[in-house]
Structure formats: structure tokens, C-alpha cells
Queue: 4 jobs
Job 1
Amino acid sequence: MIVYTVAVDVAGSTVDEIGECASSVGHFFEVTTEELADAFVSIASSIQHLRLIQ
């Protein structure tokens, strides 16, 4: 399972806590409100490359 996390306009230790919930550093996005759409575009692009298996 892959978990993405996005911290929007967050500062301090909360950013670290949110980041630790992600599967890896590459699955964590720290963004401003203006950058939020770009983060979701990046996540959507990554998800397109996933392959579902049973």
C-alpha cells in the first residue's frame, strides 16, 4: 500500500508528523495553497503508473 500525504500551509513539528505518515519522502508534499493543485497533479501522475494486482 502506498500512502501520500499533503501538508498545506502547515509549519513546525506538524509538518514532520504529516510527513511521517507518507510511505516515503517521495510521497509527501509540503505545499502552499497556491501549490496544492500541482501536488495533486503529481500524485495523479504517479498513480497512473501503478498496476493493480489481485
Note: The CA atoms of residues 38 and 44 lie 10 Å apart.
Job 2
Amino acid sequence: MGYETKSGKKASFLKENILPISESGQLKHTTDGAELFPGFKVKFVHGHTGAMMIPHQV
């Protein structure tokens, strides 16, 4: 699993904060268009935050 970040984002994604969430099974990786829950899918948008995810009602 990749936890490398761009240099400008390093302070936002510290391994010591992310790893416990991942190791407890609470962090789920997804892909564009995946079902979030019935009636909603994940949509990636590329604005000032690269690959930001938003819920998209289908």
C-alpha cells in the first residue's frame, strides 16, 4: 500500500496517523465509480486538490 505523498501534502498525511486507521480495517481504498452505498458512487474530481472524492448520486 502506498503512503508516499507529494512534498506539499506531507504534513496532511502522516504515516503515524494513517497506519493505525489502515491496520484497524477502517481505511478502504476505492476506485472511481465504485459504489459507496446503495444509490451513491464515488466520483473523483481534479480541482485544486488532486483526485478529491465526492459522493455522486446515481
Note: The chain has one domain: 7-57.
Job 3
Amino acid sequence: MLGGMDQIVRTALIVGFAVVLPVALYYRIRSQATGEPLDRRQEGLLILATLRPAGLLFMFNHGS
């Protein structure tokens, strides 16, 4: 019974990824066309000081 659920979840994730990827690529390519450098400080101090380091910690410590 659980095997069927795994297949449903896997299919849903693949379909979701297939829908989101072209849209993300379109906007990524469009933003790169200007050649303007990104200033990460414009995101705000909260994002710069908390969200990015938290993402790095999660990326390296999520399995232990």
C-alpha cells in the first residue's frame, strides 16, 4: 500500500518540478540579459544576517 503512495508523491514532485523549472529559467535568463550586477545588501539586513546563514547551516547539517 505504501509503495503506491510513494509513486504518487514522486510523480507529483516530478510534475511540479517540470512546471516550475521552465518559468524559473525564463525569468533567470531574462534577468541576466541586462548584465547588471546584483546587490545583496538591497535585500535587507534581516535576510542578509539570518536567512542566508540559516540556509547554509541547513544544507550542511540536515542529516545529522
Note: Residues 2-61 form one domain.
Job 4
Amino acid sequence: MRFFRAQYSRVHQILFWAGKFMLKKLAGLTIACMLLVCGNLFAGAAPAEENLWMTNFEAAKTKAKAEHKLMLVDFTGSDWCGWCIKLHQEVFDLPEFKNEAPKKFVLVELDFPQQKQLSEELTAQNRKLQEKFKVQGFPSIFLTDANGKAITKMGYMAGGPVKYLEAMNGNVTKYESILAIRKKADAAKGLERAKLLDEMLTLGDKFSADSSDDVKLGAEILTLDPDNKTGLKSKYTYKNLIAQSETLTEEKKFDEAKAACEKAAAVPGIAAELKQDAYFAAGKCCFDKQNFGETVAYLIKARDAAPESKMAAQLGAMISRFQGMADAQANVEKLKVELASKKGADRAKTLDQLVDAKTKFNQGMRPGMPDEEITAWTSEISLLDADNKLGLKTKYAFKAAMLEARSNQRKKNINGAKVAVEKALALPGLTPELKAEGEMLKAMLEPKPKSDAPAPAK
């Protein structure tokens, strides 16, 4: 589904809804260990670019630990991804980067080529790491510690190697600050620890690529300050509920996720924009269920929660976009209820309305894709109006012939398309609208006359 896109990043990863990659697990651990001792895990997987970029992730971790460095991990499509190639040409392949980056980082390239062949072992390693790091697009650049734990995520950045190195070093400085606060927090107790944990989590917000500990630390803050003496109770109650909704959404438990979002929106004392985030996340749950009526209702709640926010205008545009789909979906459901009590000619007429309503809905969802319900309804209409008393048999015979004509047209089978159009136009009892539609396609299939105009002078 491409309609409901991430509009902002105030709530961690709420709007990433492409599916996770289902990948093979890395095999051959015994052999891998033997090869690691020899200094090269995979056949053909020697470090790239004259030992500057390593391809063996475990060997890179060993090197990073020995040299007390962080790692820069590049998930790339070296022979097909335009932005990956651009990043290498503008940054990674230039002397300024090659000379400076290895002083602080072990460079790791995890390639996903389409033309170049990698060994099976290297391909399996890269896919396993793609799943671990939840990589959904390329290039994806991660700073990690020497254990391979993600610190923060980067990507393409214009401005050349100097600007990119500045961003990398800035991220390192921020990471070191987080570690320093973490060290203080580990030595503190009670409310002082709660405050330090909050400081650490706030600094890491929108920075950390691995927030797996955030929920646990947020829960600890609530335990350390049950009486809300630090004023952090609402903040972390909200964050924990949003985190729950994200987990439930990943598990496709959309109703439970929506309920968690509702609770988050109801937390007392939260900012209007946080309430907006929660309602927006609830709308996302409804979208995942393809319930567009509820989707629109929550988008309206989100807009009204913070009408002066930057997001409000975007929400208004989304509401307009989804309202038509919500209306079409509601009409389909209404007609389905009516259909249950209809028989004979009345049932055929209602089915005809259903086909039109579902077709309109599909135009917003998946235009041109087959629909089993429409196919079944069309077949039933032909049976119910076998004598064409309602004109529906002709209507759907015409639709079928025109569908065949357009299919042949797409396949460049113009003669086949012409035959199908003639079959459609030969049907008895065509309405003026249907006849005009057929004549228009027939005209489109005719070859265009060659121009007799002289060629322009050179």
C-alpha cells in the first residue's frame, strides 16, 4: 500500500509499513569458524577496494574491537541502485573520505547486486544482516559499535566527503555523550537515575537506530518515580503505549494496536502534537485493516488535536484523499446488506450497482487488478438477466469484449483488439454511451494517416 506514507518522524517508525523481508538463515557455522581463523570467512569475499571496505561482517567486528573503532556499514546495490552509486562517486570513492574515515571507522560493504555474482555464503550473510538491521531501502548506512549493534542510521547526503565526515563525527560525538550519561545513570539511584535515564533517552530520540532498550528504560523510569515527582510519568506512559502499538501493528493485531493508541491520546498532560501523533497512528491501524471510514475519522481527530501544527495541512490533504475511498467502501457495504433480501430482477439491478461501486472503490486501491467479487457478481448478473430484459446481459457482454480488446491492445495484438471491439459493437441493444465507448476505441486502433507535409529545412 503506497497511499498512507510517513508524513513526519515524531513517533518512532510508526509509518514504515512495507513488509519485513523473509530471509534464509546463515548456515555452515563450523566451516565459517574454520575460515575465520584463516582470516577470510567467505570464498571470493575479500575486503573490497584494496582492503578499505571489508565484506566479512564478523571479521570486521574483530578488527573494530582490536583497533577500538566503530564500524560504518554500507547496505548497497552497487550495480543498480542510483543513489548508492551516487553516494560512492560523491563521497566514498574520493580521497578525502578514503584517507580520513578509516582512522576512526572500520568500513563494511554489504552488497545486494543484480548483475555481479556473490558467493552463496556472502549472499546469505548479507540477507541475514538486512533482516537484522530492518533495511527496507538502499543505500542504508549504519554506524555501529564494535559488537555490530546499530548506533544511528545515515543515507545519501549531498555536499561531498567533507560534509559526510562531519556528519559521521557529529554522530560519534552524540553517541559518546549518550554513553557518558549512561555511565552516570548506572551509578545513580532513585529519582536521580530516573532523571539521567530521561536525559539519555531524550538525547537518543530520533538518533538511535536501535531503540530495543528504550521501552524497558521507560518502564524503569515509571517504577523509579511512581509518584511523578520528576513530572515524567505522562511522558513515558505515552511512549510505552506508542511502543506497544508499534509491536502490535508488526504482529498484525490492528485492533489492539488501535486501542493502545487511543490510550496514548488520553494520557493526561501530553502536548497537543503528541495527541495528534497518537490519533494518526490509530488511523494507520485502520488503514492496515482497509477500513477507510475509521481511517478518515482518526485523521480528522489528529488534525483537530493540533490544528495549528505543521502536520495539520498534510492531514487535511490526506482526509480529502481518503474520503472518496471511505464513501465508496461504505456504499459497497450498504449494497451488500441490501442484496441479501433481493431476488430475480431486483437482485440483478443491485448486483449491477455493486459492480459499479466496487469498481469505483478499486480505482483508488488497485486499479486494473482482478477482483473475484466483481467476477462472481458479473456471472450472476448474466444468469439473472439471461433474456436481456434489463439490458444487463448486453452491458456485461460489452464490458467483457472491451476488456479483451484493451488486453490485446496492451499486448500489441491490434488485429485481435479490432475483432474484440467489433464483437462488442455488434451486440444488440447497446446504449448510446456504450456505443460511443466502443467507437472511440475502434478509432484509436486505426493507423494514423501519414503526413504529407514536407520535412523541415535543415
Note: Residues 1-49 have pLDDT under 50 and may be disordered.
